[in-house]
Specification:
Blueprint lengths: L4 H12 L2 E5 L3 H6 L6 H15 L5 E4 L1 H5 L2 H17 L3 E8 L3 H12 L9 E4 L5 H8 L8 E7 L6 H4 L2 E2 L2 E2 H12 L10 E5 L5 H4 L10 E3 L12 H5 L6 E5 L1 H4 L6 H17 L1
Parallel strand pairs: 1-2, 1-10, 2-3, 3-4, 4-5, 5-8, 8-9, 9-10
Antiparallel strand pairs: 6-7
Length: 278
């Protein structure tokens, strides 16, 4: 199957490395940048992040909630930002965490991948807790059109542990979800497939039962920088799956401000290179 999401991701890794810049326009960050906490401030912030990231990283990850808080005008900005990021050659991972069943989930995918939606996304984050099968059935044609998704598997928030560490089929639910993703990616002709996992960088992957798993699962790894994980420990954290990971940083570089953002991204890239080679 040509032009799979995993193929696009692999090519982007080879060209621009594995760093992913989160676009998280918190109200305090807008103020730190000297911008109004408004749709206009949101637009300037997000577009300048994309400009700074272009040519330096493989992907950007806009967090939908910070756009959605401005309602329809925020979604207009998000549409413009995602289209601009795509035009700059960046992989666009929309952090939407959608999850439902049947036609409702089909509509969510149409909203983010459909030609009439106004948004652009190469992949979105999804929540599997109505059943991973419900997500994959709704995903259907989108894999053939080069789209991907990252299902929440092991997240760094303490509240998630009671669910993700629950036992099913003799293993944690997180491990069970990851095993299903491995199976879904078996047909990928490249080293990375289209069906991904979100694995928090601050999570003890051993305790979640996913540390030794590999397969062709693309991984989205938040938690670097402000949340405590270090890019210099990238390979130590992810081991054999390190080559399939998009290492996401946001607040720790966004706080550098508009003028120093390119330098902050370059420093993060240098740290990640050290972390993957040592």
């Amino acid at each position: 199957m040509p032009n799979q999401f995993g193929d696009k991701l692999s090519q982007a890794f080879e060209k621009s490395g594995q760093l992913c810049v989160g676009i998280d326009p918190h109200s305090h960050l807008l103020r730190t940048w000297g911008l109004n906490d408004s749709p206009l401030g949101l637009r300037e912030f997000a577009l300048r992040v994309v400009e700074a990231a272009s040519g330096l990283v493989s992907a950007v990850k806009p967090q939908v909630s910070f756009f959605e808080r401005f309602g329809a005008r925020g979604f207009e900005v998000l549409a413009e930002v995602t289209q601009f990021a795509h035009s700059e050659g960046l992989i666009v991972i929309v952090d939407a965490k959608r999850g439902d069943i049947g036609t409702t989930m089909e509509a969510y995918f149409e909203a983010w991948f459909g030609e009439h939606s106004g948004f652009y996304a190469d992949a979105i984050t999804t929540s599997p807790y109505l059943g991973l099968g419900a997500t994959t059935r709704a995903f259907g044609k989108w894999a053939e059109e080069g789209k991907g998704f990252y299902s929440l598997v092991a997240t760094s928030n303490i509240e998630g542990e009671s669910v993700q560490l629950a036992q099913t089929n003799g293993r944690t639910l997180a491990a069970d979800q990851f095993e299903q993703l491995i199976q879904l990616n078996q047909g990928a002709h490249g080293p990375i497939g289209s069906f991904g996992a979100v694995l928090g960088a601050t999570v003890d992957l051993d305790s979640f039962g996913v540390a030794e798993k590999r397969g062709k699962v693309p991984v989205l790894a938040p938690g670097f920088g402000a949340q405590g994980a270090k890019l210099t420990d990238a390979k130590a954290i992810f081991g054999g799956m390190a080559g399939a990971v998009s290492y996401s940083v946001s607040r720790s570089i966004l706080e550098a401000g508009a003028n120093d953002l390119p330098s902050a991204i370059k420093r993060a890239n240098s740290e990640l290179t050290d972390g993957l080679t040592k």
